[in-house]
Design brief:
Helix content: over 70%
Distance between the termini: 70 Å
Strand content: under 5%
Structural class: mainly alpha
Radius of gyration: 21 Å
Largest sheet: none
């Protein structure tokens, strides 16, 4: 097992345990095809809650794997990381907004039901 495979397996087990995930799928298909195809295959075969724009960015990252030197790949990963951090912030904001909406909707439905029953 190569150093990369050990790293991917470590990431996979520490974050996801035994569950199906992109890192485990990438590691398993890495020996069959090149890194770029393997990453995209793992991205498409893993069931997760990624939005389309998140998948697109991760797919673009996969296209860069193995195409540049170590420094270039680190830069590419940093760019993707910053984009994903922004996506996380947007998702948290959307969650806060929807949380208020659902709480208010629950209260209104409860009051409506109480009025109907009285």
């Amino acid at each position: 097992m190569s150093q990369l495979e050990k790293s991917l397996s470590g990431i996979s087990s520490s974050i996801y345990g035994d569950r199906d995930n992109i890192f485990n799928n990438f590691c398993n298909s890495l020996n069959k095809v090149d890194a770029s195809l393997s990453w995209n295959e793992a991205l498409n075969s893993t069931h997760n809650s990624l939005k389309d724009e998140d998948r697109e960015v991760l797919s673009m990252l996969g296209k860069m794997l193995g195409k540049t030197d170590k420094f270039g790949q680190i830069q590419e990963i940093d760019i993707v990381s910053k984009f994903l951090d922004k996506q996380i912030e947007n998702s948290e904001e959307e969650k806060r907004k929807n949380e208020k909406l659902y709480k208010t909707l629950g209260i209104v439905c409860g009051l409506t039901l109480a009025i109907i029953l009285v």
